[in-house]
Design goal:
By secondary structure, the protein is an alpha+beta fold. The chain has 14 helices and 35 strands. Among the domains are: 237 residues, Glycosyltransferase (Alpha/alpha barrel); 87 residues, Immunoglobulin-like, CATH 2.60.40; 126 residues, Jelly Rolls (Sandwich). The protein has a five-stranded antiparallel sheet, with no helix packed on it. The chain has a five-stranded antiparallel sheet with strand order 27-28-35-30-33, with no helix packed on it. Strand 19 and strand 20 form a beta hairpin.
């Protein structure tokens, strides 16, 4: 049973808070994002609170002893005397008002003290609504493609074209940071597999997590494509006077290879190999695994290379091997990036080895698994529990071990104990002031003789740092649940969710630190970010990196260096990049915590509910019965009868397990809230036998599990929308259109060959095509094909509107980089509105290099009938079907 909280439900006495007086009332309209919102005495989560979450609000005031508070629109009121004086990180003095006992759902309530009221908020099971999907859709919104050339210092002659997710406000592709963002989403998917279709099923146009990760990580197929044996750390899209790429003055810029980026390549590709094995093909998995092994081998055996700024070049700066010495704080100047430190690359090597070890186990590479296992267990970073970010990634490796515990043969008991200790430290820190300060504000860990008299603990990307610490508390909650330590499981879950309170309004700037255009319930939200892809900030769900006192970064919009405490070192005007820049690793840290808050945490809260339970619980819950599993090709729908509740055995949730062998895993595939009687497991493989289990749990223990086995169906036949996509009927259905130049089109050995004698100077002058045809609205489509060229060249093969403005429905960006080897190109795209004038075009002018194409598919849904395999004609209905 939960201990009583400080809040007491007493009649609210009229009072005057002396000293600090504020002119806000119930009818006050607050400013949105111009700094005046900081005049409010209240700090609350503008989105709202979950009923069983820890609910706090801050009231900025001088110390008056105990104060009375109430929650308008409810019968909740109480007294509070918890007071923080001159908070180190913000300089604020405030009461921490705990109204956690107010668990009844309510809308538009306000926290009141004396004559002052906060902005309205909800107590709801879904306070973030569609914003939680927008946080993930950020990645699709920021997709792009480019051809990168112009190597800094002319170290190589390269031209690399690929899709990517724009890293930050400057729109580059930065593998070191992309590795960080990729890991966050990969670990989320491996921890909670049912999340794969969570966004695509609930938000129009959103991709599955796996499909989004394929775009996010495509760059790692190219980082090693250079004459040196190490990986490229940054692909810049801009060269600026203040960010030169000697000797080039414009265009793109490719950094020189280095060791850190090579380890980043290895760990990302190894982790993706596991996902390819689960969601795609063994060929894709093996290719990623082998390239990951090559990257790790090269990183360990080539001479250690650490780049200084002059070898990075271009806009976007560098990723220092040593975060403590890479820059001087004020004025911002480059310093020695390569001062020896255990987080130079020791952490990167460890994380890469871990990811390859887990991949080897999952892909059945027994010899590799044995070797990597020994290396992991002998490594000094094994069992470490520490805060992490792109500059210190050892903990990411250890969290990967934890998420894959059922697939590996390593005892993680010491690691789990260390994670619980670390989570306790984080929880303790966030309980002392603003809930996003998860670090020790008095730490000296960042001191390096560079103006250490100015507090340096609110780091660059402070929101990312806090959300990563929330991930550690999430792991601790799951560990505690598995150990039947229900109080700590609920406590750590509440701590993780409190970090969302911080980025959603309980911060020193009094603003939700993400864009919320179209969400009127978020009264104060960021309306200006540093984002080159969306400078008008019309897209919701973009998290800014946040306040920091690491440096003013020559940012004229920032407060003068050292003039404010760290949490107030934030640009109140303009779009200064030092605090308002967006970044893929910021949103990648936010997405799992937001998912956890809504979909996982409620069941953990119920292990130690706030307030008296309706029924006393003294017995383990009765097991579910009537367990039924119904399969499709890629999902299993489960239903059962909830039998607990009649014998002081009310369940507080259900654990569901899934495995391809008849052995219940150690970790639940998904956890459901009380009174659940069914769920659907998605993202499964066709024609596969799965064993499933469901068990009820409460504070006393876990019921016996109900179990069954089911075989998923074969993949249903997919109808190809286009005619003669495998060219079995020669050139039937295809027009060899020429608007300039000269070429002929013929089918040779089942492959469509465009023989170009004069490519002209424009891509669409040589344009084989088919259409028009119709596409449905509110549907997702997959466009895929095999293609190669007589010599390396670019092509623009896409699905587009057949009349002006010729939109590229298939979102192929700048097209395809064709080589002399046949490749499979796959594009998933949404159609929000129906059209009757779509067509497929091959814009292949501008070059005299012949093009060869085969196995073209356009199907409804998110699956390539060839599963990404070159030379496959598809296992579904014939690609010669008519439209």
């Amino acid at each position: 049973m939960r201990k009583p909280l400080r809040a007491k439900h007493l009649p609210l006495a009229g009072m005057v808070v002396g000293g600090l007086m504020f002119g806000f009332s119930a009818t006050t309209t607050f400013a949105t994002d111009n700094g005046t919102q900081m005049n409010s005495p209240f700090r609350v989560n503008f989105a709202g609170y979950l009923p069983q979450a820890a609910k706090t609000g801050l009231y900025i005031s001088n110390n008056q002893g105990s104060i009375n508070w109430s929650l308008s629109g409810t019968n909740c009121s109480g007294t509070e005397n918890t007071y923080v004086s001159n908070d180190k990180s913000s300089g604020d003095s405030f009461y921490i008002i705990d109204f956690s006992e107010c668990t009844a759902p309510a809308s538009n309530v306000r926290l009141s003290v004396g004559g002052n009221q906060s902005e309205p908020f909800d107590i709801s099971s879904d306070p973030y609504g569609n914003l939680k999907y927008e946080f993930f859709d950020y990645f699709k919104d920021h997709e792009g493609s480019a051809t990168f050339s112009n190597s800094v210092n002319n170290w190589a002659n390269l031209s690399l074209n690929f899709q990517y997710v724009k890293d930050a406000g400057d729109n580059g592709a930065y593998p070191t940071n992309t590795a960080e963002a990729s890991w966050a989403l990969i670990n989320m998917l491996e921890t909670y597999p049912s999340i794969n279709n969570y966004y695509s099923n609930n938000f129009s146009g959103a991709k599955t997590v796996y499909d989004q990760l394929k775009v996010l990580t495509e760059q790692f197929k190219h980082t090693m494509s250079n004459p040196r044996n190490l990986a490229i750390p940054k692909f810049h899209t801009n060269i600026q006077s203040w960010a030169p790429c000697s000797p080039h003055s414009s265009g793109t810029c490719i950094s020189e290879p280095e060791t850190k980026a090579t380890y980043a390549t290895a760990r990302t590709l190894a982790a993706m190999a596991r996902l390819h094995s689960n969601f795609d093909t063994s060929g894709e998995a093996t290719a990623a695994y082998n390239l990951a092994k090559t990257a790790l081998t090269n990183a360990e055996n080539e001479a250690f290379t650490c780049n200084q700024q002059n070898k990075f070049g271009g806009e976007g700066g560098m990723y220092p091997d040593n975060d403590n010495t890479g820059l001087k704080r004020d004025p911002k100047t480059n310093d020695n990036n390569c001062v020896a430190h255990r987080d130079n690359t020791e952490d990167d090597q460890y994380a890469a080895t871990v990811e390859l070890y887990i991949a080897a186990e999952k892909l059945g590479q027994a010899a590799d698994a044995s070797q990597f296992r020994s290396q992991v267990m002998a490594h000094p970073r094994f069992n470490e529990a520490s805060s992490y970010w792109w500059g210190a990634v050892a903990m990411e490796g250890n969290l990967s071990l934890l998420s894959n515990e059922s697939s590996i043969s390593i005892d993680l008991s010491t690691l789990k104990s260390n994670i619980l200790v670390k989570a306790d430290e984080i929880y303790s820190q966030q309980s002392q002031g603003y809930p996003g300060v998860t670090w020790d504000p008095n730490s000296t860990q960042w001191n390096n003789g560079d103006q250490d008299n100015v507090d340096n603990n609110v780091r660059w990307g402070s929101h990312r740092m806090a959300l990563n610490d929330a991930r550690i508390m999430m792991a601790a909650a799951e560990i505690s649940k598995s150990q039947v330590n229900n109080v700590d499981a609920a406590r750590f879950a509440r701590g993780a969710v409190k970090v969302l309170d911080h980025v959603s309004g309980i911060n020193a700037i009094n603003i939700a630190m993400y864009t919320a255009s179209g969400y009127s319930n978020i009264e104060n939200s960021v309306t200006r970010t540093h984002d080159g892809a969306n400078p008008g900030d019309s897209w919701a769900g973009k998290l800014v990196l946040g306040p920091n006192n690491w440096t003013n970064a020559n940012d004229g919009d920032m407060p003068t260096f050292g003039s404010q405490p760290g949490l107030k070192m934030f640009a109140l005007t303009g779009t200064g990049w030092a605090s308002r820049e967006i970044s893929i690793d910021a949103n990648a840290s936010l997405v799992p915590v937001a998912y956890f808050a809504t979909e996982v945490a409620p069941a953990l809260f119920n292990l130690d509910p706030i307030g008296e339970p309706v029924d006393p619980i003294s017995n383990t819950p009765a097991p579910p019965s009537g367990f039924v599993a119904t399969a499709t090709a890629t999902s299993i729908s489960l239903s059962w009868a909830d039998n607990s509740g009649s014998n002081n055995d009310t369940e507080q949730g259900f654990n569901v397990y899934l495995n391809t062998v008849n052995s219940k895993p150690a970790t639940a595939t998904t956890t459901l809230t009380t009174n659940s009687t069914g769920t659907t497991l998605t993202g499964l493989n066709p024609t596969t036998t799965y064993s499933v289990w469901v068990e009820a749990f409460n504070a006393i223990g876990i019921s016996a599990a109900a179990s069954t086995s089911v075989v998923t169906l074969d993949t249903p036949a997919l109808a190809n929308i286009i005619t003669n996509g495998d060219f079995a009927n020669g050139t039937n259905g295809w027009d060899c259109t020429l608007s300039g130049g000269s070429a002929t089109c013929a089918v040779e050995s089942g492959v469509y060959h465009v023989n170009i004698s004069n490519g002209s100077n424009t891509a669409w002058h040589i344009q084989p095509r088919q259409g028009p045809f119709s596409l449905n609205g509110n549907s997702n489509y997959t466009f895929a094909f095999d293609a190669r060229a007589a010599s390396n060249r670019n092509s623009e093969i896409k699905v587009e509107r057949s009349v002006s403005p010729w939109e590229d429905f298939s979102i192929t960006g700048s097209g395809q980089s064709l080589t002399t080897t046949m490749q499979r190109f796959v594009y998933n795209f949404p159609m929000n509105s129906a059209v009757s004038n779509a067509r497929i075009v091959m814009n292949i002018g501008g070059s005299n290099s012949d093009v060869f194409i085969d196995n073209i598919w356009l199907v409804e849904g998110n699956d390539d009938p060839c599963s990404g395999v070159v030379g496959c004609s598809g296992s579904s209905s014939s690609s010669s079907s008519s439209s």
